[in-house]
Amino acid sequence: MKQAEARAGRLRLLARLRGAQRLTALRDAAEAEAGFARHHGLSRRTESLCAEYSARRDCSDGDELRRMRGFASEIAALSVRAATDAQRAAAQAEQKGAALAQATRRRDMADDSAKAAMRDVLRQRQENGTDLARSLKGAEKKRRKRDG
Question: Rounded to an integer, what distance in angstroms lies between the CA atom of residue 73 and that of residue 67?
């Protein structure tokens, strides 16, 4: 009986630990999704700027045209880097989402095991009659404390 209670206690502790791990995974996944959103937005904005500056034809002389082309090529390079960063952030967000799903499954399994162990302990107490003795003992302590 004591072993079953100790096992149930360990499983409850494991369930709490898995719950904390799930919260950490949830925070990590949220941060990864936010990072992806930032990178994706930056990628779209740089692509838009690149298209806008590449399409400009309002240069008055060759020097201005050369500077405009140089600026457009730098924005294009920045756009490529931003797109690469967005892809990397998307992969990381997907990985963190998978880690969150795994942490959730582990927490659920630990909860189920803890509940099953507790049901076994309660069933054993009912079969042995110790649940009634425990409740009577607790009631006696409360009465003594109250009566002082």
Answer: 10
Token pair of 36 as six digits: 């992806």
Q: Where are the domains of the chain?
A: 2-147
Residue pLDDT, tens place only, 35-52: 999 999 999 999 999 888
Distance CA 120, CA 125 (A): 9
Contact by Cβ (8 Å): 104, 19 = no
The CA distance from 107 to 6, in Å, is 19
pTM: 0.71
- Helix, coil or strand: residue 60: coil
Q: What is the CATH number of domain 2-147?
A: 1.10.287
Q: Are 25 and 99 in contact (CB under 8 A)?
A: yes
